[in-house]
Amino acid sequence: MLSSRSRKANELVSSLDFSQSIGRDASAYVLGQLVELGLGSELTAISFGLLTRRKLGVAPPDTDPVQGLLAVATEQGGLHIFGKPPVHLSWDLGRPLKIKHLAFRPGAGFLACVDQKDTLHVFDLGRIENNKPYRDSSLSLRAQITCVEASPNHPHLLLGGKDGTVDVFDIDRGVLVPTSRIPNCWVQQEEILRRSGVPDAPPRRHIPVCTDVKTHPLDLNLVLIAYDGGVSLYNLAQKSIERNWEFVIPPGAVGGGNDTEDTIFTERRPPVTCLAWRPNGLMFAAGHEDGCISFVCVSDDNPITIRTIERDAVNKTTEEDLFAWNAKSPEGRRQTACREPIFRLAWSSFEQETMLSRATASLSGAAAAAMSSSEIPDLPTPDPPYTKGETMLTILGGLLPKDPPGIHTLAFPPYVAPPNAASASSNIPYAVREALKASIEPTFHHIYPTDTPPEDFILLPRSSPHFSLSHDPSAMIITTGQDRRLPVLAAPHASRGIEAWSFPPAQGHPRPRQLRLPAQLCWNGPGTCVSARLLNVQTLAYRRMLHQFDMRDEDSDRIPLKGGKAFPRLRPSRTGMRNHVPLDNQPRIVVSSHVDLVVRFFDVSSSLLQADRNDAPSSYASTSSTPAASTAELKPLLTREYPRPLAHLDLDIKDVLLDPSASGLEASRILKERPWELEIIKCDFAVHTCELAVALSTGEIILARLGYGDLRDLSTIEHDRADAEAELDETISDALNDMNVNSVEANPSAAPPRRASTVNPTPSRLRKGSVASASFATPSRDPSDCFIDLSVVLARRPDRDGFRAVGAFLLPPPNSLKAPFCIELADIGFFAASSGNILLIADLRGPEVLLYDDPTILSYGKKGKSKTKPDTSTVTSLKWTVSAVGDDHDRQPRLIVTQASGTTRIFEMANVAGGWVVSEGPVTFQHDSVKNAIATFVLDPLGNELLADPLRLQQAMNQQFAPSHKNGGFSSLWVVVTPMVISAYFNINGPRTAQYEDDTASAFESAAVVLKDGCPVLIATTRLRTVVAFSLPSLTQITRMSFEAAIHTDVGTLSIAPDGDLLQFIDPLHIRLHTIADIGRPSCPPSLELWDPTIPVPSLTNALVGAASNLSSYLFGYQKKVYTGSDMDAILGGPNRKPAPVRRRATAATPLTTPQSSAPSRPAPTKPRLSSSQNEFTTTQSLLASTTEALERRGEYMSALQERLGTMANDAAKFAADTKKMAQQEAAKGTIKSGFTSLFNR
């Protein structure tokens, strides 16, 4: 039997319908994925040039400097293309296979990749279908591919195999060219060694492995092939070997230092690992397995010199090296160096101005102004006028175990040719050798430091695709290995990091400028995400977060990718797009925490995918006579990245913990001693006050607040800071003397003064039953001991807007990672946190801890011992609200605390004389349906959620709420979500008005109140990868939606925004943004154009070709022909090369009509009105044009089909003729055999 109160409450609530018919329409709910954050797998290849680190089987990205694109591949067969900030396209091979190699055909719009099954795939970036490039060709290769070389001068790809051969693949035709295959050039050389009786000659079963292939930078006919035994120079036109080189370390020479006392006095031939041509083609560098680098002239049989990074001429025997093995002292005795191999080399040249002056300019001007004084070293004086021929060699590997990890660069002076000198042998003259040796003596040495050993690097040229993509680079991308100092996650994650730096380095600068990568590349390695939340932000707070954030500052620190175009388009909706729904303009941000203890902010607002007329480039404003051209000119361009990283808001917890003021924190000690044990477990953000709370695994909670940057000079800021601190100390000292507090005067350091805003309430000034009384029991732990002031922590960039540390709250650490640990920020300046069964409440205006409750020691009741046993169950949910409770109709800020046992406590905050205090005793009640609550919500009689925001606090302070007696005493409805039950209660602690019990085996894991077209509904997610919508307040199920992806059995952690978008965090590799709202929003990815056919491919100038011809004449003694790209295309294509297929590349994108901007713009020219006949004529023209285009396309398809059928017919006829001929031969053989048999039988 229901009591009269319960019956009255049920009748009152049942008559309400918050969701209405719009929210209860099941057909309006469609769960769709908007975008996936990150790469989705471990990074394996990256391409702006062709790089491969063979030790780990990992290839770097590849780039097309002509189009300005960057390609990245992953371990699960994923491919990503990056260009301008809004340009990003991702797709996969269709099979989860690791991609080993990437290569662009620069300027042509083709991307080639080789997977771990040695299958070659070529994608046409000029044809994008279903949000992925068209697969132009695919071929299973016969050998295991170890290296790939692409040339911008011809469409042929050189594929080095483990069997020592080099295959040639024609990208335009999509076939291998067997007539151009390069045989194993080192087999004959090994046979010579065996016949010569060399002791360490390889056996006959040994197959030389091709480790690298490099085309001559000026003479395309010459190809340098590296084998594990040496290097061969191959002539493609003559199909012959020009020269072979062996790299012998003589007995006694130190070499790379990896030899023992037994092997140091023998001849050693370190295997070759990589190659790099000098840009003028005069000489090349070869990296070795023992960490040495050999420098060789192409017309000499012997190396010019062999060196390591720190020492030259390691192929020469010295007295020190000979006698170091027998040194008396252990310190002076030589030990095995254990030097790592040389994994990659890149030899760069530069344009008119010198590389050092360019590097100095990159650190000056706006870039230097944006850096703090502590980060800007003294700039060197400008270099003398331009000196031609300066080069720089970038080295990966060759380090000793004691060396710091990083990428090393050696700067070389220009080569000065000596006067003509004769040589008695076939080698170069002595004067030329000395001049070449002088040109490879480093003028300075620089290191790009990395936190972990680098795995590969790639240079980003400004525009030239020649010289192995190393000419005039402006940036360098480095991939790094796993950082052992970071926590090891149990979930799948990407451990390899990636970072970018400016290039070249300036002499005298210890650290070059670090560049920002695209947002999708920031979720790997140290940026591995451990948690993420999706939040709706008010417009005022959103503008505050973007204060001083300029697009120019954003793009200035980004890697120089200028390729592609992005156009907005509407997202297709399964329920049909309703025209009356406006475009989505709700600001949204993602707050994510990462393993490197950094909290990062990303803007995922739909406005980033919209463009107005002001975003269109000036070239679009030109007039055209054709309607098609006019339509193309009016297409708006996207200019902003999505998701957009808000780097100026990033909060690095390490900077806070390493500050001296935080030395008392346990997290600070662990960070210095065992950093892999420290991680972020919770993060909360107040969207109105822009306050951030970060909970660490030690139980400490760092509080930070968004502050504006100070644009004054940094020295002035520090001077003002010191003056302010001195003035504050003097003010506090005077205040203490005026107060005449004996306890404070006796020991000022032991009892810090309380803030002036904190008032100790007295019984005469308290409101009965709502605020604390003098008889309230003091907790066993002093609340002031639970807070440490961190406001003096220096910001890394005080000139920029960003989060500044305020303080740290101290709580016991959770028992395990899955133990309940809750934090809740209110937008009215309150904070609550719980660890297990311990509760902390704080006022952030101080900040000041108002309550520290440990139920194992303290119980609520009268003075003395409590007769009731306190509830020691863990706290599972915290919720701030401004509402009335039960019969208390006063709206006050309240904290609702639910525990695992079903006990609920409601703490009231009261303002007394300008300070806030906690109520004397909380309102306590218990329900079995509240056990293990995961989320709670408080709704008003209209269905609006009663959040603790500034507006409701102001209304509460002014008592501006409607009286509850007009609603029959109905002031609020409390909705509680537990793993199996959802319940609603009248006035929070009143009778239950509705309940939903899930009859399936799934359990609820998260919930939120969402506004569906302005009507509130309850959205809950289950463990079985479903999303359920409930009407309010009846809690009737509206619909149940399932996630489409069936790869993951767990739905992960979901963060639901009030507008219906939700962020799904399955693991660090799979973070997806979904929506259930059918609103007008742009699609992601937008409409993309990756290949621009109007951009020409820069060619080698006639001066360079002439220089190569003169160089060959000087070196070889005769005028040698220098082959061009067209010549090589004819030579490599072979005599029976079939014609190239007809490719129709779509470059037009459907424009998205966007609302006009409110900003004033130029008035559009008035156009004369068209009559109805003119309109009909235009329509007829468009129909005829589309019909003609369709007929042309049909003709192309029929021609291609006819060509294929003709080829099949020819092949069939040839097969029949061959079969007939073979049958005739077999019959003739049988006849002859039978004749001889009968003859012998006689």
TrEMBL record:
Phylogenetic lineage: Eukaryota, Fungi, Dikarya, Basidiomycota, Pucciniomycotina
GO cellular component: cytoplasm; plasma membrane
Family: Belongs to the WD repeat L(2)GL family.
Stretches with biased composition (Polar residues): 1169-1182
Disordered: region residues: 743-779, 1133-1182
Organism: Microbotryum silenes-dioicae
The organism's place on the tree of life at top rank: Eukaryota
Keywords: Coiled coil, Cytoplasm, Exocytosis
Gene: BQ5605_C050g12491
Feature: compositional bias, Low complexity: 748-757
Cleaved signal peptide residues: none
Location relative to the cell: Cytoplasm
Any single biological process term in GO: Golgi to plasma membrane transport
Domain V-SNARE coiled-coil homology residue range list: 1169-1229
GO molecular function: GTPase activator activity; myosin II binding; syntaxin binding
Main location: cytoplasm
Protein name (Swiss-Prot/TrEMBL): BQ5605_C050g12491 protein
